[in-house]
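task queued by scheduler; priority normal; single chain, no ligands, no partner chains; default sampling; output format set to structure tokens
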Amino acid sequence: MRNLMHRHLGKLVAGAAAALAGTAVLAAVTLPGDAGATGGGSRTTAAEGPGAGTGQAPQIRPGAVERAPEEGSTGVGRDPLTDDEVARAQALATPRTFRGATEDVKGRAGPERLTTDLAELGPDETGLADPPRRANVSFYDYRSDAYVTKTVNLTTGKVEKTDSRHGVQPPPNRAESEAAAGLLIAAPEGAGLREDYKHATGKELTGPGQLAVRGFVYRGEAEGPAPPGLRACGEHRCVRLFTKVRDGQWIDTRRYVVDLSARTVGRLG
């Protein structure tokens, strides 16, 4: 009886593991009932499947991966923005005249694109059966050091609102974090980073593509006393970095601040 119990429990563990793994068909798992005590039968805890009631191990068919349904060009109601809507909103928000008057993190024409999100409805639009769909498109303009947000009405194709602010510093995007890492690597202040990378990998560190980097904003005097070379941060676009050898160890670069507006590197403390 003890051996029989062990065999049944072995089936239970195997069946439960298969169910947790997300298989398409539940295994039929039979638990030992009160047979040892009262002579009763067994009880089934999952749907019947091939092999159920035969004493054989249940056959588990491999799961199938289905294709995601195709996304339409336009969302409905409060659906997230579709890829087509994101591309259209960004194009409407950056006409030629705006691109020519702004710069991105690499100094090229056009602002640095940050986020594109579905905009909130107005108070008188929440009850509408088919409310307008709008997108908030945000940028950072390195020519004027301004954070710019444009509200685009995707139903009418018009830019309804433009908001430009100085001294507002949203989180950096990936391109900005990598640009900051490139400036740090090339600067005299990056000597320690280069040495640590060579010690960890045996190779020379020549560019940000060799690192996994994550940036976060440094706001200068708003965060406490700042060294003279970093006092413009907050008005300038300044970034601190978490750096890591790809598939390797972390290298501590948190004391260094890269001023992306001035393209300089400073050190805290």
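post-processing summary
- The helical segments are 2-20, 35-38, 83-93, 96-100, 174-186, 191-201.
- The longest strand covers residues 134-141.
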